[in-house]
Specification:
Strand content: under 5%
Number of helices: 24
Distance between the termini: 16 Å
Number of strands: 0
CATH topology: Growth Hormone, Chain: A
Helix content: 55-70%
CATH superfamily: MFS general substrate transporter like domains
CATH class: Mainly Alpha
């Protein structure tokens, strides 16, 4: 086997002269050598991260379905305006359709659904920074554990008062707020540059998988065992996941007890000098004055407005406009996220393929696939709003709107890692913190528009605004976003930065010995 380092290390200076971001390693050679013996550990990490986000989103979205069974719609229906712009109700309603015990109007429901995000935004930035300093394993795990505990307390809180339920949802948000930044910090240690799209999509698509499972299962549980069971089941599943995470996962390849030497060296040296071997102080001034960072903030905010408009409001739309019972409602509401999960995985492979084979520069690939993720869903949301009472057409458009949005994991969501592996957790904490303000603004906006007006014209406005936000956010990313490694990724005030060992190429003798 040829041990020439040039087989494995790309010439950084030449790639910089071309103004493109090139993979540090020759992908074909490295993957051929490492595929057989270096697969298990980092992909076990990705799988457990995937399951973690599946639990996170199951606990986040179960209320969107359960609230349909919790609210006394008959009592509230008398206060809603009736217009000719409504869809006719089915002549034979479901025998299982029953009203819940709570007289919460649309504004109350918007407050309850959005309360989670008041806590969620608070722990984003601290979560990212703490993960960079102390490691993400326990931060990620305990964040989900806290959410599980308060999820199981939700029925008690709901029966006590709206205020207590709102407080419990805020506390759940505080727990979940650390998960994305902590995972981004861990991905910066575990993911070779040529696998960023695939690894990121595998991990974060757990959120779509969790949604796909949680929505129909929540509908079934609420219908068969009562709405309280929804919160108990998902809370217990998350507790089981936490125990597995605690025993199987480590903060980085360096601290994992069973990772092979080949895989550890492959990961570290493929990341190379882009990530420092020491913990760096955050260059706050450089970050907060960076135009590409603020482009990411705006793009992330646009993503979350559209995403949470669907995530929190689709079950309500299905019930009040299209007149689905809770089981059918939950199943249909899950379709966009099933397609999003599958589409995200497909696009991630396509993105890395175009970059690895120099079909597109990294910067161009991120922007092309981000445009797919934003522009097409925006168009389909508008079409869904104007589909009238054609149920099948509306479902198709809403499914496509949610599904194609899965390409955003290969778009702006991977750009934090491209720009700054050393501060990926901090960057995601910043952008996700701002973005999840949309988590309570979008439901509140929908509640304000829809309150007392359950008709097509008001929902058309909700979908149209979400589409405009998608369009505007993508324009900002295409014009101002950048995947170039930022100069402040290596803070010059840190004398230990750029450890010389980070520059060493992978040795074939290291790969061939265990």
């Amino acid at each position: 086997m040829n041990s020439d380092p040039e087989m494995f290390v790309r010439n950084r200076s030449s790639s910089e002269e071309r103004g493109q971001e090139e993979p540090i390693l020759q992908t074909e050679n490295i993957q051929r050598i490492t595929r057989k013996r270096c697969y298990q550990t980092r992909h076990l990490f990705a799988f457990m991260g995937f399951l973690g986000f599946a639990n996170v989103y199951a606990m986040r979205v179960n209320l969107s379905v359960a609230i349909v069974a919790m609210v006394n719609s008959t009592a509230l229906g008398n206060g809603s305006s009736i217009s000719n712009n409504t869809c006719p109700a089915p002549s034979t309603p479901s025998s299982h359709t029953t009203d819940g015990p709570f007289n919460w109007n649309e504004r109350d429901q918007g407050l309850i659904l959005g309360a989670f995000f008041y806590g969620y935004v608070v722990t984003q930035l601290p979560g990212g920074r703490l993960a960079e300093i102390w490691g993400g394993k326990w931060l990620y795990g305990i964040g989900i554990l806290v959410t599980a505990i308060f999820t199981m307390l939700t029925p008690l809180a709901a029966k006590t008062s709206v205020s207590l339920l709102t407080a419990v949802r805020v506390l759940e948000g505080l727990g979940e707020g650390v998960t994305y930044p902590a995972m981004h910090a861990m991905l910066s240690k575990w993911t070779p540059p040529n696998e960023r799209s695939k690894m990121g999509s595998r991990v974060y698509s757990g959120s779509q998988f969790g949604t796909v499972i949680a929505l129909p299962l929540s509908g079934y549980l609420a219908d068969e065992f009562g709405w309280e069971s929804v919160f108990y089941v998902f809370g217990v599943l998350s507790l089981i996941w936490f125990l597995a995470w605690a025993f199987l996962i480590s903060d980085s390849p360096d601290t994992h007890p069973t990772i092979s030497r080949e895989e550890r060296d492959y990961i570290k040296r493929s990341i190379g000098s882009a990530r420092s071997s020491v913990t760096l102080s955050v260059p706050w001034k450089s970050i907060l004055t960076s135009v590409p960072v603020w482009a990411l903030v705006v793009t992330h905010m646009a993503q979350n407005w559209g995403f949470y408009t669907l995530l929190t409001e689709l079950p309500t739309y299905m019930k009040n406009i299209l007149h689905f019972d809770i089981k059918a409602n939950a199943f249909i509401s899950a379709l966009p996220y099933l397609l999003m999960w599958l589409f995200a995985l497909f696009i991630s492979f396509l993105t890395d393929f175009t970059i690895d084979h120099n079909l597109l520069s990294r910067n161009s690939a991120r922007k092309v696939f981000n445009s797919v993720a934003f522009m097409l869903p925006g168009l389909f949301l508008i079409l869904a709003g104007y589909s009238g009472c054609n149920v099948n057409t509306t479902i198709v458009f809403l499914t496509l709107a949610g599904g194609i949005n899965g390409a955003h994991y290969s778009g702006f969501m991977s750009t934090h890692l491209d720009m700054s592996p050393n501060f990926a957790g901090t960057l995601l904490g910043i952008t996700n913190g701002f973005a999840n303000i949309m988590g309570f603004l979008a439901p509140a906006f929908t509640g304000y528009i829809i309150n007392g007006h359950q008709d097509l014209s008001h929902w058309q406005l909700v979908f149209f605004v979400a589409a405009l936000v998608y369009f505007a956010g993508n324009v900002v990313f295409v014009v101002l976003g950048s995947t170039k490694e930022q100069p402040w990724n290596h803070n010059p005030s840190n004398p230990g930065d750029r450890n010389q060992a980070d520059y060493e190429p992978i040795s074939t003798s290291d790969m061939e010995s265990d």
